[in-house]
Amino acid sequence: MLARCLISKAVIDGWGLFGYPLSLSFPRTRESRLLSPYWIPVFTGMTTLRFVKCFACGALAWQWLSRTSLKDFVMLKRTHNCGQLRLNDAGTKVALAGWVHSYRDHGNLVFIDLRDREGLTQIVFDPDTQPDAHKLARTARCEWVMAAEGVVQPRSEGMENPKLATGEIEIAVEHLEILNVAKTPPFEIDSADKTGEELRLVNRYIDLRRPEMQNKLRTRHRVTTLVRDYFDRLGFWEIETPMLAKSTPEGARDFLVPSRLTKNCFYALPQSPQLFKQILMVSGVDKYFQIVRCFRDEDPRADRQAEFTQIDVEMSFVDSNDVIDVHSNMVAQIWKRILDIDVALPIRRMSYKESMADYGTDRPDLRFDMKLKDICDLAKQSTFKVFTSTIEKGGVVKGLCAAGGEKYSRSDIEKTLTSFVGDYGAKGLAWSKVKSEDGKISLLGGFAKFFSEDLQRQLIERFEAKDGDLLLFVADSEGAANKALAPLRCKLARDLELYDPASFEFVWIMDFPLFEWNAEQGRYDSLHHPFTSPTEEDLDKLETDPGNICSQAYDIVVNGSEIGGGSVRIHDPKVQQKVFDLLNISREQAKQRFGFFLKALEYGAPPHGGIAFGLDRIVMLLAGTENIRDVIAFPKTQRGQCLLTDAPSEVDARQLDELNLRMQRHSHVIEQETDEQK
Question: Exposed/middle/buried for 561, CB within 10 Å: 0-12, 13-18, 19+?
Fold first, then answer.
């Protein structure tokens, strides 16, 4: 390296005598940039001794250069990416760079598939025309990094690869550079989908090289770019909000960050920018958005991470229809640009009550028609004690009809399906199959013997059941029945292939209750958050009937997954205080938790509303995966660990001392040292 620096210095000083602008005359190295100026005027301030020295050094350098190619000075720079070249590029001299995806040595010719994020290109080495490059190519192995220069040529007839965009051409390599060698990877790129997720996460840098993962990262980038461009056109400003903020409990546990400068005090990482974006509306910003990291200390699952990304939006002087229209168009543009799918506008709307009654959830999958139905009026006329006793206790009997469900055997129903709903708290699963004999349709098996012919007929008519269908019921409280039947509905549709997995069905869920009753603590809880505004027509119920107040909240759901949710906010301090009173949040507690925000409301807050979309979930749906970790570059496991970096990890005692913190083990060590000193 030192010799290279000195030679570069000599060449530059020698050529500088003649006033050459070096940036034009010589491909400069990193060392030349550090050691010399761009221009050295002729003889300016130069002594005779310096002239002789520079001339001699320059002469030596020229002699060395006569035996050395300029390619030894600089890396071969690519002219195209590995997914770009086509048949009409034949005859063009190009340079590519990337990783060795596969290697084939046919004894004479050597073929390498060179890969970068844009695709694969086959490069070929012929010992008769380029023996040096051929010799070097035979040393290469998978995942080595190389650059190759050569001429584009059509592949031999019959050797085209229709699976590759570049499958009609290859590069006849004239010059090859090995830029880096690689150890044998812990798993093959092509078979990574058969490799355990833990091993892939430990070696995430290898996993991310896979074309599937590169496409998911590209999709995520395209979505964020579309979002930013969309909101910019509509006059929104992207504004960052703090990462270190005050702990304001919003349902999930906060991630706490100890302060070094303020002893015994903590910041909280934001669960969302909720209060800050409302303060921006009070500040007159009018239209805000942000693609922001959020943190909730809750157990991860397939579609949720403790660390996630939101598309966060707030607007002033709007009602719920304004917010819904803006974001329906955003969703439609994303699906059109990414998947070329036309989302029908306006997107369908459904009330919370209808969604819970027909689908048992506020996140219904509408790709198939399998509505839940209440049969209490029929069940109480039967002799089935499981049904009748549940109804007498104030419960419900609710069920569904699975088209073509006769494929499930009695064992499948009583073991697999019953066990499935048991995981969601159901005590059992009643069933009966629909059969047609001699033109007469009736129920067979299960609870059928407890229903008269007339009750069976009414039950079949209610579900519009046909021969070969399966009726399934849960008898419990309405909440418990919905909790079990909603996921069962989705499982049956998936098993019976009742929908096209590539289709998308969108719906806005509206008219949520403002509160839900917390029986354990004997008080109301916010169904969304305590800053959600009641509907205008229900404001009077804050004093008289809080359990039946509708909120101005809205969620957007696609294929059973909530991708966004928001509301019109409370902008009147008096209404906000009434809501706090109903939530049993005292004035002192409200001041301690939200004092800075409540103070802002007193200085003229405009009517405003907003929404937050889960970017990770959107990309997950667009990419066709059911695992959110697939669309996050460096995700956490189900236990919240980063296997790549081994986080979270222990820190040393000095760091804890600076933060005035003690761990239990750390405290024991300190006590032991104190005892020894005594």
Answer: middle
Residue 178 pLDDT exceeds 70: yes
Residues 6 or more apart in contact with residue 525 via CB below 8 angstroms: 515, 516, 517, 518, 583
Q: How far apart are CA 16 and CA 58, in angstroms?
A: 9
Q: Would you tell me how many other CB atoms lie within 10 Å of the CB of residue 360?
A: 25
d(CA 320, CA 566): 9
> For the chain, what is the largest distance between any 2 Cα atoms, rounded to a whole number of angstroms?
119
Cα separation of 241 and 222, whole Å?
Answer: 23
Average pLDDT score over the chain: 88
CB 347 within 8 A of CB 378: no
Q: The dihedral of CA 148, 154, 155, 161: what is its sign?
A: positive
Q: 462 Cβ partners below 8 Å, 6+ apart?
A: 373, 375, 378
User: In the predicted model, is pLDDT for residue 294 greater than 70?
Assistant: yes
Question: Quick one: which of 551, 561, 557, 545 has its CA closest to 528?
Answer: 551
3 state DSSP class of 423: coil
Q: How many CA atoms lie within 13 A of 653 on its CB side?
A: 7
Q: What is the DSSP letter of 407?
A: G
- Rounded to whole angstroms, the Cα distance separating 418 from 472 reads 10
600-638 pLDDT, tens per residue?
999 999 999 999 999 999 999 999 998 999 999 999 998
Structure tokens at 323: 């917010």
Amino acid at 88: N
Cα separation, 137 vs 262, whole angstroms: 61
Instruction: Examine residue 648 and say whether the peptide bond preceding it is cis (omega within 30 degrees of 0).
Output: yes
- Going by C-alpha positions, the residue among 576, 569, 552 that lies closest to residue 282 is 569
Cα distances from 159 to residues 154, 156, 176, in angstroms, run: 10, 5, 24
Distance from chain centroid for Cα 354: 30
3-class DSSP assignment, residue 171 = strand
pTM for the full predicted model: 0.84
C-alpha torsion sign, points 145, 151, 156, 158: positive
In angstroms, the CA 379 to CA 447 distance is: 11
Is 306 within 8 Å of 632 (Cβ atoms)?
no
List, for residues 206-236, the tens digit of each pLDDT value. Answer: 999 999 999 999 999 999 999 999 999 999 9
For residues 285 and 75, give the distance between their C-alpha atoms in angstroms, rounded to a whole number.
Answer: 49
pLDDT of residue 75: 76
What's the pLDDT at 27? 37
Tens of pLDDT along 438-458? Answer: 888 999 999 999 999 999 999
33-92 confidence digits (pLDDT tens): 333 333 333 334 445 555 444 455 455 444 544 444 444 445 789 999 999 999 999 999
**Residue 579, pLDDT above cutoff 60:** yes
